[in-house]
Each structure stands twice: as C-alpha cells, then as structure tokens.
Amino acid sequence: MVILENAKKSFAAACGNLNRYNSESEFYHKIAEMIPERIDVDNLILAFKIALRDEDRRGHNTVGFIALAPMYVDQCENPEFALEFREKYNREILGLTIEKISEENYGCVEIDTDIIDISNKSKGAVLAALYNHAVPLGKGFIQYNPLKWTSEMGEAYFDKVGEKNGNGGTKFRYVLGRCLDIIFVDGMVYVAGYNYVNGSGMAQRIIATVPNLDTPKLEEGKELKK
C-alpha cells in the first residue's frame, strides 16, 4: 500500500498554486481540510467521491476542473503515490478506459528537458501512443472517444488534425477532447505540456514503448545493438 506522508500540508500547498479563489480552489481546499496527515490512495479517492457528491448536492458544476485532481497530487512529491492515484482516479471517478502503459522498452532519447528525439520512430505511432494515454479536460468530456488509435490511424490523422505553426512544426492541443499539448518539429516532439496535464514523465514512458524504425527492443541489462 502506497502512503502519502504530510498529506494535508502538501496537498494544501499544491492547491495554493491556483493563485485565485473560485469554486475550483474552494473545492480543493475543502479536500485538504478533509484528509489526515497520512493517507493511502483508496482513502484519498474516497475523499474525492464524498467532496464531489457534496458539490453536486449544492448544485455546483465541477466539469471544468474535475479532471485536474491528479495534477495537484503530482505536486505532493511522491511519484509512486501520484501514479497509483492517477490510474485509480481516471478509472473510478472519471470513468475513463485508458489502458496501463506497456512494459515494452525501445528507448526514449531525451535531448533536453521534455524534448524527445523521435527521428528513429514513426511520428504517427508516437502520436497514437500519446493520444491513447491522454485524458480529456473540461468540455473535452463531451468529445471523448474511448476508441484506441493504431499507429496507422496516427499516421492518417497527423496532418488532418495537426495545426501548423510558424516554425515548421505541427501542434496538437486537443484531439477528440483529450489534452495532448505537444509539438512535432524536425524529428523531435516537445512534451512539457503533455506531462503537465497527464503526469510527470508520462510522455517519456509512453514514447519508450513505441518501436524504433531500425532497431530491436531493449533488453534489461543489455546494450542496444543493430
């Protein structure tokens, strides 16, 4: 069982990053008041269910921020807890069918913080993989489609749904309600926005599961050979 220590303090501090007071910040501060200093994932999920039920009874609309909870838990400095919470929250509260990330490892070349070299991978396959694990936000739930994209679908939709920018890149903000916030340019993909919404380091983990164009899968304890 994964435990979050100093939960009340760390979660209240994360909520403080909202920098404004509205129904969203009020909701998260109420959560911070509800939870003890030490809590496991299941009980934090329960606290959210109770808080959301109370908001519904008051007639408050939580659609605009209900999907943001894992982003605040990410700030509580316990990556293992945050990952387990995100997976259960997406499934039990948001009702999403996002699959777990594969254990396959073909490598991920990060040339700078959140800048990934994908010149040895299919851009369509990378787009499909990132799409499949992205969550919808706000009104995006109206457009959300649980259908999983294949690599071929990623290739087909790359130019159709991508937005060209002035630097020769192709940007994807929202696709069928899912928040991607990524930019493909010159054999690279910029994933800072994706990780902010979908989880710290998630894009790197997902991209590593995409096969390389000319090299085999990495085996634990062995170097990659052609």
Write up what this structure looks like.
With 226 residues, this protein is of the alpha+beta class. 42% of the residues lie in helices and 13% in strands. It is built from ten helices and eight strands. Strands 3-4-8-7-6-5 form a six-stranded antiparallel beta sheet. Strands 1-2 form a two-stranded antiparallel ribbon. A hairpin with a 2-residue loop joins β6 (170-175) and β7 (178-185). It is globular, with a radius of gyration of 19 Å.
What is the SS-derived class? alpha+beta
For the biggest sheet, the summary is: 6 strands, antiparallel
- From the spread of the alpha carbons, the general shape counts as globular
Radius of gyration: 19 Å
Q: Give unreliable regions as ranges.
A: 221-226
The number of distinct helices, counting runs of at least 4 residues, comes to 10
Helix content: 40-55%
The run of helices and strands is: EHHEHHHEEHHHEEEEHH
Total strands: 8
Beta-strand residue fraction:
5-15%
Kindly report how far apart the N and C termini lie: 41 Å
- Sheet with most strands: strand arrangement: 3-4-8-7-6-5
What is the arithmetic mean of pLDDT? Answer: 87
